[in-house]
Design brief:
This protein has 329 residues and is α/β, with parallel strands linked by helices. Helix content is 31%, strand content 28%. It has helices at 14-23, 52-57, 72-81, 96-105, 123-133, 160-176, 257-260, 280-292, 302-321; strands at 3-8, 27-33, 48-49, 62-65, 85-89, 113-116, 140-148, 180-188, 198-205, 210-216, 223-230, 233-238, 243-249, 267-273, 325-326. One of its GO terms (molecular function) is nucleotide binding.
């Protein structure tokens, strides 16, 4: 079955979604909407519709929502009411209550709602999940992420926590297969904008894994790293370069009695895995298509999107109060 796809928002992210939808087998981009027009020239013969109502009237089966975060709730709920399978760019909404309303709107039989956390589809993260499932690290102790780079001019309505850190919160819970138990955070405002541009987060997951996240958009270099440390070594996923490296604990025993009694580790073999490097946005769109067709379940659900937003709000609350915030109810 060919799915008639619509796209609302054809700005910096939407233009890429337009290309990917067109390249996805089983999907046809039949309608686009953006009140700001088509500054990137992605319409390619399609009329640029003014709003979500016009998009719905075009008779679509699926929709991709790539409008600014503040509009996610209104657009998504209208699509849900029209019975249109929808993927909303991350985060699910501008605040937790709005996110819950969106998730509730899509809580209907035979209606698919997804959130576009594309980092789950990064080849390095997909390979990381596979290796962890194989038990390569044994028990997992710690997950660290670093996401740094220059300020993205496209961002105007949120700070670095909702724009960038949200990726790390989602992929950490995904990799660990556990929700967050608590977080403590510090933010900084250095660029003269209303919103924070740097954040440091520490926390613990419900399964006992400790985590920390370093995120900012004021670094003159770009870095996207996820480091998982366990009893047998560490896995480093570089999602910028789509690489996965295994740092194995060494097996050489020390002869120095004082050190030998310390239960630490030594450096061992380093293995860089060869992995298939497909474009994450294409994988994400294929997973959404499959879910709509009832043959896959690897999307990020609206409920998961709300859970991530709850952690994001806890991070902002912690940075404001200076106190650790519990996420257990």
């Amino acid at each position: 079955m060919m799915l008639r796809a619509g796209l609302i928002g054809i700005g910096s992210m939407g233009r890429h979604h337009a290309r990917v939808i067109r390249e996805t087998e089983g999907m046809e981009l039949v309608a686009i909407a953006d009140p700001g027009g088509d500054k990137f020239g992605v319409a390619k013969g399609l009329e640029v519709l003014p709003d979500v109502d016009a998009l719905i009237a075009a008779g679509i089966d699926t929709a991709m929502v790539a409008v600014p975060t503040v509009y996610h709730e209104d657009v998504a709920i209208k699509l849900a009411e029209a019975g249109i399978h929808t993927m909303v760019e991350k985060p699910i909404a501008h605040d937790v209550e709005a996110g819950r309303r969106v998730a509730e709107a899509f809580d209907k039989p035979d209606l698919i709602g997804a959130v576009g956390y594309v980092e789950r589809c990064n080849p390095a993260i997909m390979a990381l999940r596979e290796k962890l499932a194989e038990g390569i690290l044994g028990e997992i102790y710690q997950i660290q992420t670093r996401r740094q780079g220059p300020f993205p001019a496209r961002i105007s309505d949120v700070g670095v926590v909702k724009d960038l850190a949200t990726h790390d919160i989602d992929l950490t819970a995904y990799v660990a297969q556990s929700e967050y138990e608590n977080v403590a955070a510090q933010t900084s405002h250095r660029s003269g904008r209303e919103f924070e541009d740097m954040v440091l987060v520490t926390g613990r997951l419900k399964n006992g894994i400790i985590v920390n996240h370093v995120v900012n958009w004021l670094s003159p270099f770009k870095e996207r790293l996820t480091l998982v440390t366990g009893e047998r070594g560490a896995l480093l996923a570089d999602t910028l370069n789509n690489d996965l490296t295994f740092f194995e604990n060494g097996t050489i025993r020390t002869q120095w009695d004082a050190v030998a009694q310390f239960r630490g580790v030594s450096e061992g073999a380093i293995t860089r895995f060869a992995i298939e490097k497909r474009e994450p946005l294409k994988v994400e769109q294929e997973r959404f298509r499959d879910a709509v067709n009832g043959v896959g379940s690897e999307i990020v659900t609206m409920v998961e999107g709300v859970k991530t937003l709850e952690v994001i709000q806890a991070i902002l609350d912690s940075s404001r109060t200076g106190q650790s915030v519990s996420l257990t109810s």
